[in-house]
Every structure is written in structure tokens, then in C-alpha cells.
Prior knowledge:
- By secondary structure, this protein is mostly helical.
- It is 78% helix and 0% strand.
- It has one domain (2-68).
- The longest helix has 18 residues, at 51-68.
Amino acid sequence: MWRTRDKYAREQLQNIEKWKKEKSYGLRWIAESVFSALKRCYGKHVMARKFENMQQELLFKVFLYNQLM
């Protein structure tokens, strides 16, 4: 187990910029920013109780947010 971890750690340290690009490291902030903006506008709760209706509600909120932008 540790040999595998050591292999990837060495690979990362040899060329950090190449590793970041290959692994798409550092792109999570984009998604987190969108989720944060949606929560600021509409809150973190949904009113629907059924899962299918929750999905519809969230899709509607995303649609509205996109219309505002």
C-alpha cells in the first residue's frame, strides 16, 4: 500500500504543474462557487418531500438562477 502512495507522491513532486494539469487539480472551486451562490439565493433547504420532487425543485431553482445571470 505505501509503495503505491510513495510512487504517486514522487510523481507529484517531480513536476507539480504537469501533475495538476493531468489530474485537473484545483477545479473544485468552480463547482463550490456555484453551489454557494445558489444557497445564498434560495437557501439550503428544499420544500419537497419526495425525491423526484426534490430534483424538480432544484432544477427549477437552477433554471431561475441561470435566468437571473
